[in-house]
Write a structure and sequence with these properties.
By secondary structure, the chain is α/β, with parallel strands linked by helices. It contains seven helices and 18 strands. The two termini are 14 Å apart.
């Protein structure tokens, strides 16, 4: 079998959901609403001018000030009272606009074909009916709040793959969530009837995920919370002969495991994807690879996935995730992605 890198890439956007809105962006910042709390955070790729007034921006409950050149480091300045934790309803019985796809007119080659260029499709994520999930947002030392709303299209895609596996007779599809953070995808998968293994190297993130599980009233859901190094865990699973129907891979640029193991994206991702390929179930399998905040092309990761999944065949999508502002005029890029499915 073989697997070719797509000749086009997809720009998948979300306009938010009742618990989240991108209110404005520009000048290297973004103004967002998470539940009842409005925050002002760094966004280096927002090179354009802001559209809302300075008075509207000044209504933010909290402003994150970056330290030096690293936007991940800094501190929050509290302008209005903010709870230690506050709930954000995630995909709670919500129906957004359906998927729309702008067809390609250019058939330029990429990957192994010379002289090509990527032509973007723009796709809006449609969100179907799911059980209530509650994520607890918090102002921690970093500018992250515990929720990445741009991932909504991937969560919906995951739910579709789980539903397809169940329709094909898999009683309880198995989901592996690597670098799972605070567990949004894990909770959604469990609520949809999947058996979930959630792996993260941070004890704080694991506990936060368990707090979200309790807030979502999913205490009985089949989720294994694993404080572990992703590479070591997947290697053990391969030796055990395990397989999964959906694998979510959301690695950082750099990181450390619970026993001070080091992770470096370009050095360690190829071997991890070897293991993910071995763990993909023969039928009805799907993989989502999402990569944040790096100076690289989505094509590099598409070629990697194409190599690792070549024996399985199937189909692949590659592109970027983005969030569109509430007024519909600005689109903020967030990450690169590759999605692979055993069947087209």
């Amino acid at each position: 079998m073989s697997l070719s890198v797509p000749k086009t890439y997809d720009l998948i956007e979300t306009r938010g959901f009742p618990g989240y809105e991108l209110l404005d962006s520009g000048g290297g910042r973004k103004l967002e609403r998470f539940g009842d709390i409005v925050v002002d955070r760094p966004e280096p790729q927002a090179l354009w001018r802001r559209r809302l007034s300075a008075d509207r921006w000044a209504q933010a409950h909290a402003v994150f000030s970056a330290s030096g050149d690293d936007e991940d480091k800094g501190k929050w300045r509290i302008e209005r009272a903010v709870p230690e934790s506050w709930p954000v309803a995630l995909l709670a019985n919500t129906q957004q606009a359906g998927v729309s796809l702008t067809p390609n007119t250019q058939q330029a080659g990429v990957g192994v074909q010379a002289g090509g260029s990527l032509t973007p499709n723009t796709r809006q994520a449609g969100v179907g009916r799911v059980d209530d999930i509650t994520m607890l947002c918090r102002l921690q030392g970093l500018w992250h709040l515990g929720l990445f709303p741009e991932q909504m299209p991937h969560w919906q895609w995951m739910l579709e793959k789980i539903a397809a596996a169940k329709a094909a007779g898999v009683e309880r599809p198995r989901v592996l969530n690597l670098f799972g953070y605070t567990g949004a995808a894990s909770l959604l998968a469990a609520a949809a009837g999947a058996e979930v293994v959630h792996v993260d190297a941070s004890k704080k993130a694991i506990q936060w995920g368990k707090d979200n599980q309790a807030a979502s009233k999913l205490n009985a859901a089949p989720i294994r919370w694993m404080l572990d190094d992703a590479r070591k865990f997947t290697a053990r699973e391969v030796r055990r002969g395990r397989d999964y129907h959906v694998l979510l891979v959301d690695p950082p640029k750099f990181g450390r495991g619970p026993k001070n193991e080091t992770w470096e994206l370009f050095a360690d991702l190829p071997a991890l994807m070897d293991d993910c390929a071995a763990l993909a179930a023969d039928k009805h399998a799907a993989i989502v690879l999402t990569v944040y905040a790096i100076r690289a092309s989505a094509l590099a990761f598409a070629e990697l996935v194409a190599e690792k999944m070549a024996q399985a065949g199937g189909s692949m999508e590659v592109g970027e995730l983005a969030i569109r502002s509430k007024d519909g005029k600005a689109l903020v890029p967030t990450s690169l992605f590759v999605r692979w499915s055993a069947h087209a």
